[in-house]
Amino acid sequence: MFIGREQELDTLNKLYNSGKFEFAVIYGRRRVGKTALINEFAKGKDVIFFTGVETNARQNLDNLSKCVMEYHTGIAADSSFASFQSALEHVFALAKTKRIVLVIDEYPYVARASKSLASTIQLLIDKNKDSSKLFLILCGSSMSYMEDHVLAYKAPLYGRRTAQLKINPFDFFEVCRYFTNFSSIDKALAYGIVGGTPQYLMQVDDRCSIEENIRNIYLNPSSAMFEEPSNLLKQEVREPALYNAIITAIATGCSKMNEISGKIHEDTSVCAIYIKNLLALGIVKKESPYGEKSSRKTIYAIEDNMFRFWYRFVPENTSIISRGAADLAYRRIAPELSSYMGGVFEEICRQYLWKMLLENKCPVNFSDLGRWWGTNPKTRAQEEIDIMGADKDAALFAACKWTNEKVALSFLEALVDRSSLLAYKQKHFYLFAKTGFTAGCMDKAAEMGNVTLVLYEDMLE
User: Quick check: pTM over 0.85?
Assistant: First the structure.
């Protein structure tokens, strides 16, 4: 079942319908659905689809030759072109009179094995772009390679592309479309345990309870997901052991660079290099207090929910899980789920605010959202605001609570008090609640007039 990606499909179809030479670069993390997107777009079109493999140049050339010849003759021929240049020249020639889509999936595998491939493609584009109807798509999972060797200014193919699409995991509201049988609460929990990566969403069965899904996905040694983060790191990095240690440190509460380095007993300079790579992979994110750019206050968190959940709960229970004691492992995880979901709920609320902004339903036209934290000069205590965003002299401040108790008036009063630490003339407050609000909180919100109370259930309407 293919869901979402309407904007990306619309972009690709507009390029296709131009009738002239087009060159799109599609990239994103592994498992994020790049190939599925291309396959959906390619339906009913003349397509030569070649997938690179991690082998030598000759093998990839043979595979490309078979794809081209099978398209041209309808027969899987054993003959091979003499070079990538001759194979691609043949495709450009075929596209002189008809629209053809040439997809080179996993392009980094091919280009690493054939160092001159990028320059060859550049040469052929420059020679044929004004007379060709070819729609060339290069797709890759190696984010660093695609950015450095395809999109970067010094790359041979720079300036030749007519579009680029970075494919990101689904947001929460797109995920909800996938889970038609879950309750609204279970949709949030499912998003919390696997995130928005399509390949991981496919592991979730919305006909089962969340407990059953956690058991099947993470507490089963034979599950495809049991070793997924480790296997993914082995594909992406050279020293997965140290990356594992860093991610585990962050997932279990170390957020500052010195805390992470202390936890894993490595110099901060070493940790900084590895964390930079994790940022590029979209596994880790860094934050500073909203409106500040001080690196001194930078903290790190796990960006991807699947990684967050796995590193938070699986490693410490691996011995138990390996012995088949899923019941015991789940009993250890269950009491922590509500606190774990606190951070997930904040992210859902941020996505909701963006949704409201794009629908012109937000009282503040913010350009960015983030957390804020700092020291209260009166009390010398650390204060934190879950979400804030600003536009000149106007700002919104939000607090999120994922608990079974209704949000009380004190919660609103605390948010208003913390907002006084930031000087904005106009302020609007949001309270997000899983369960609801007390009468006192609702009365005060109505009296103030600049407060929006949002019940989680209502966010899904």
Answer: yes
